[in-house]
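Readers outside the structure-tokenisation community will struggle with the description of the input data as it stands. Showing the layout once, in full, would remove most of the difficulty. For illustration, here is how one protein appears when written out as sequence plus structure tokens:
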Amino acid sequence: MALCKEMAISSHFSCVASSGWSASLLTGRSVVQTRPLPLNFPCLGLGNLALSQPLSEISLLSTALKCNARISFRGYQEEMKSPVYKNFVQLRSILNSVSSLNEVEPLVYLTPFLEVIRAEDVTGPITGLALTAVDKFLSYGLLEVPSTDSAEWVATHGPRSFRSVSMAVEAIADFGTQARFVGTDRSSDEVVLMKVLHLLRTLLLVPAGAFISDRAVREILQSCFRICFESKLSELLRRTAELCLTSIVQLFFSRLPSILWSSQKQWVAANEHSEPSQVSDQSVVPTHQNVDVVPDNASERLDVPPKCDREKTPDIAVATANEPVNPSVEEQSTLEAHAQEATQETCEATGEIIAQNNMESPRKTEATLPPANEEVGNPTPQPYGLPAVYDLLHYLISLLAPDHNSDAIISVALGLIAIALETGADAIASSPSLLRLVQGDLTKNLLLLLYSDRVWLFAATLRVCFMLFESMRKHLKLQLEVYLQRLIAISSPDNETTGYERREVALDSVVRIFLVPGMATELYVNYDCDPYCSNLFEDITKMLAKNAYPVERLMSTHFLALDALLAVLSTIGTNCTSPDSGRQTCSPQMGESENLEPAKPSFEAESVPFRDHSVGVARVRLNRHPTDPSLLPSRDKLNAAKATKKILILGSDQFNISPKAGIAFLQKNGVLRMPLDPDEMAHFLRENPRLDKRMIGEYLSDRKNSDVLAAYV
């Protein structure tokens, strides 16, 4: 089947500041020197130039439809009577009768092009022309976002309003994710799918894309993930989908601070206008706290089914003569069930209102999306916000599960999560619902991936872990302890099961951790001086000392271990010689993180004043998590805590042999009170990880210790 090809020629204009510039045009063997003319013309806006753009695209698509009629089995007259062609004829008459595009609603000139995109009897090249046309409309700013809905705006810019722009972008998202066309060959079909990806990416990146609803955003992400994970498609198309997802993730998490601020402002405004009787029994959130609300529709997860039914699922479909080519995900046959295991997250900020009666588990409620032409509740779609970001992060975390996903899918998810942390790590830490995802499933899956034997996957996991703990370590004390213990086990020279490549990558990660300002001090204060934590700083230093000494021949791991030790010594020396004596290098006690106030987000943080450094004094890199120097423990308190910890370890060892002897030893050394306090003893049994669970059970089962049992339970 031959297709009629028509070339659209467009001229490229450029404003020239100086008429003395010249350009060279290569024409065969000769070089023609040209002098550009100073052209003065307005930028493309909602005027005559904007009006000519839809007319030119109408002409191009109408010609393509006529050529398609001449070579198809249907007659020419029959094709001219088709609804698709009639829509363009009517649109042309409407545009010819107006003087500016301001006088036309966006949906009026977008609908004919969108109908071509979703028409099942249109070939791929024609669908590609319609996709390109809509993409141009978005890129050229034809969907101008109104500054206000006042009468002055309507008088100067026409009937365009927030509602009309919102309905237009919602329609583009619905029709773009439901694109259907008659396929010709695999290469041409993938070109059309690539144009679909480009349109969806442009739709989200333009200013008008902020008006897309959470439901439409979810469908866009589903389409991109399906193409990215479909093994039957070419590598180029799948990588293109991955790049589109990268841009979308970067956009979402760069907008996260403004989304959180808007949520807080809307919540405060709603409570200011509410009646006192309605909020009398509810707590009031102070204005300085972040209001993080994930509505009930957040349970509609990003679920990519293993097979895509073209007739039932509103996704991109290519109808060929032999069989439909639908982007599907064969590797994720169990992904949907895994994604539904997490319970629905709601806000848990201090003093925040939680509506328990409206919460439903994702296991009981399936994600059912209404049709695109069906209006639910408010006819104006609400712009996407925190639920869309929550669903995206939740789905990316579910892709990291090593038992349910292939290495290729995990690699893509690691790259996207790295982009999210690079863009919005501070905003994620200030959102309670997103922070719970990080503290739970994200760190769990990352720690499981540390057992991978593939070096490239292991290195990618360490990269994400470093960014995670560098930015949110004050919220991840226990997770950081497990992570560093795993690195110690991998980097230990006594571990013969670890390959040289993995040990080298792990040591490099340890070096980067110690180069973080204040990290060495934080490890000593928050772990080595904590009675119920391991001696991380001491264990890491011993491990580095063993790796720095060459046994047979000098290798790169020895240099890496030596670099880490030098970084520790450099930090100690800098803290001793700096004017502040390193008082701003230590974060608050992470063991009391649940009693601390939430971290101040970066978009509200106070600017750090410039501090002049004297000549000869080492420059100190500022800590990402500074704290008040008055909150730091003194040297005497740290020494006392270290001594108490040694006694507690000895007493725990004796308790594992004889509980009575261990308790007597701790009372003798002043760790436990005499007479025994049931609450203090229950805290000792609950928080001490060195105690044998069997001995704890024997001690609590004794009737003499009923008071301790009651406090323990």
The two ends are 77 Å apart (CA to CA).
